[in-house]
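Whether sequence alone determines local backbone shape is best considered at the level of individual chains. Part of our work consisted of pairing the sequence of a single chain with a tokenised description of its backbone. This step matters because it turns folding into a mapping between discrete strings. For completeness, the protein is quoted in full, as a sequence line and a line of structure tokens:

_____
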Amino acid sequence: MLGIAAAVLFFIAFLINAADVATNEVFASVNVMLLGLGLLALHVAGIGTGWSRRR
């Protein structure tokens, strides 16, 4: 699930950058991309996958 959220954030960052949309400092394309990278790192680390086998 976090991987899908990261992909959506990357797409939003791409649209902001490609369309040259003027946003405030919080929603700049670099900040959105960094949020996506954080979610992708959590996904790769195994957090939020939903599948776990504990024995």
Helices lie at 2-19, 29-45. The two ends are 24 Å apart (CA to CA). Residues 2-45 form one domain. The CA atoms of residues 10 and 33 lie 6 Å apart.
